[in-house]
Amino acid sequence: MTATLPDDRFFRRESARLVATLTRVLGVRHLTLAEDAVQETLAAAVQVWAFRGLPDNPSAWLMTAARNRAISMLRRERTSRRFAPEIGRLAEAESVHTPDSAGAHLPEPLRDDELRMMFSCCSPDVSEDAQVALVLSLLCGFSAHEVAEAFLVSLAAMEKRLARAKKVLSGSRALFDLGARDFDARLTAVHRALYLLFNEGYHGASPDAVVRRDLCQEAMRLGALLVAHAPAATPATHALVALMCLDAARLPGRLDEAGELTELSRQDRTRWDGRLIAQGLELLERSARGEVVSEYHLEAAIAASHALAPTAEQTPWGEIVQLYDALLRLRPSPVVALNRAVAIAERDGPESGMRELQQIRGAERLAAYPFYPAALGELELRRGRPRAARKHFQAARRLARNPAERRFLEARIASIDAGRGGQTERSDGEGPDGERHRAAER
Amino acid sequence: MSEFLYLYRLPSDSPDMPDSPQRMQERLAKWTAWFRDLEGRGYLKALGHPLETNGAVIKDGGRTVHDGPYAESKDIVLGYSLVQARDLAEASAIASGCPVLTYGGKVEIRPIRQM
Fold first, then answer.
1. Which of A37, A205, A280, A329 has a Cα at 20 to 30 A from B69?
2. One domain for residues A328 and A386
3. Radius of gyration of chain A from Cα atoms?
4. The pTM is what?
5. Which of B3, B10, B2, B9 is nearest to B108 (CA)?
6. Distance, in angstroms, between B61 CA and closest chain A CA?
């Protein structure tokens, strides 16, 4: 009993791989059976491995066990004779390759299994919300309960959403063909789903920091799969993963020692992850090869501007405003406009920022987003109007989606009451994560 | 030193495994850590084996056969181990750290009859 699992997310990843591979071999109509077989296999592994220790190659053990289980489940079906071809394919599938390690360095067939599943989840027949839920369930090994938690949705509602989406998926003729003509269009949907997944982790509502970190990491892992698969490794893919790296690099700085949110201007920049920043910059460079500038290019460039500024004061707000101008043209949304207004306040002062905030088109779509009133509050504060600021912060506090946000906003109110709101704890008219508000976008 | 049989039991109506791969891995980690600890402290005589949850019960000289893993009780035995400890009190103390207790199971401790 000396061997240990590669890491503490091994079962999740294996679950995703096994489901993807079984579904490929069995056909997508057997998605539920594949999921059940994998579930039972993992349960058996817990029992057997607890007593006997890990096998030399846990992934191979799981694959073989899952295959055998699927075969016996198929045989048990009343109509098992009809499934003879599936059983045959499974029995012959010696080539169900197994990886030794995590990440994007999978053998190609396995990587393709996961990619095909990822592209299948992002079908236009499935709503965007359900796509992200499907990705979490089928490609990240989250249980329905865990997906529900991540999105602050009731378990019943999430189970329904997942069941409906899986029905669509298993009703399709086959998993997505990576050589299909609509590959590019589907890739765009995949980008969007991964982007939403990452944002849910970075800016989302779940109060559980571990859950949110997992969402970010899963989005990055799946992004890395795209980068490693030539047809999917487009400039937009590189830009998207660059964006994730550059944002994730700052995650360690967002939470202070006490686990409280810290806004960008006050973060300890030495705690940012230099390796991720370097990786993000390299990806950003590789993303510049094409002609097209995607929204991910612009967002990644903004993230890079922040990541590279040695101090908050040295942030190139002029450049950032220009990038937001371009982003707003590409993706007009009140959230982008909110970010742009904040950047303008930094460049030109709070009066200008306030004007921009008040002119946001479609601001009603921000009605439930705490950092819209919070931004108003910060700017009022900097205009020397603490009473108006306080009202905004109170409105923001009422909208807080989790305890960390609530404490953050309460601290702002307390500092106003202490008469030092605008000075010693000067903030930059931003949410706790500073430069970019995206959570309200969905 | 005496030897004890640990029977890991779970009520047959309680779900024996969470549906989340993450929780399953955490459960495996608990069991592994627990066995390692027993081994490290010299209590573990034999790891024993996990048991399948199906099986049969034969009684009345073979005239009655029940499908299923249990005789009369409503528990399923998930597995067993052999532990050596000074006495029943120590064996009980050791068993109190068993992961099965954290999800509705129990450990039945039976001294091995020596003579």
1. A37
2. no
3. 24
4. 0.84
5. B9
6. 32
